[in-house]
Amino acid sequence: MKLLILDAGHCLSLALAREAGRRLDTRLVIEAASWVSPERLDQIAPDAVIVPPLSSPLSLAPAEVTAHAGAVEACLDACLSRDVALVWCVSDQLYEAGYNEPIDEHLVPEPRDASLRRLVQTGDRIRAEYHRHLIVRLGPLFALEGSHAWLGQLIDSLVAGDSVRAAEDVIFCPTSADAVALALIGMLQQLGCGVRTWGAYHLAGTEPVSAFGFTSVVRTQLATHLEGRGEALTLGEVKALNHHHDAKLHRVLNCRRVLEVFGVHQKPWRLEVERMLDAWCLTRDEPGADGQGGTA
């Protein structure tokens, strides 16, 4: 199976590259561009095109969100013309107002924000015009490296002693980029073997938590890792923000369908954070790193 991955520096693109590197059944072509032309598809001849998500579209300028939607639609046109499967990963922020219950796939987002509505329009067009698609809605992505990585930037801020402000009243399920990469390749392998269950799927980590709760856990685990290495660092503090004063906003994805159809289990985000912190500590032992094992 050959996959074309767009937006080369995205944390999900890097995670897909790592996962494909461990397999013999998957080849990747990674492009820096955010869209692909029919002619480029002719040259590469991929089985599917994967478009990584805008991880926090609510915090981006409207022009950036609109540009992303336009790029996805250009990919749709190219994939339609060459009968290549399209995979578009989307932030859970499209469910702007949240729901009291876990959100099922059949609930199409209806955001108030004009930029988010533009992304929904793109999703509507994909569903209406092309059956060979996966729209994969994700919880907030985290990884150590790449754009939209969150965890790597968070660790850098804490280690630098900077205060980190995080929302306490928005509840979601943080999602490991590595777990998403593993799931996407597995899903596409099954689809390539004759399964015909295209459509929208939800994929997130287990255990709903606020950004404040997630950040606090990262700080605690980071402190434990550093203490275990004998490093005495004063980490930055975590401060709570509250945007919804009347009640907490729940944006929790129901991931039952991806389990029932493809056998994909949600990864516990706490275990994924711990694993990534182990990897981060190893990089501090490399020559040229800033930790005790390297030279600054």
Automatic annotation (TrEMBL):
SUPFAM superfamilies: NAD(P)-binding Rossmann-fold domains. Signal peptide: none annotated. It comes from the Bacteria. It holds the Pfam family RmlD_sub_bind. Residues 67-279 form the RmlD-like substrate binding domain. Coiled coil: none annotated. This is RmlD-like substrate binding domain-containing protein. The lineage of its organism: Bacteria, Pseudomonadati, Pseudomonadota, Gammaproteobacteria, Oceanospirillales.
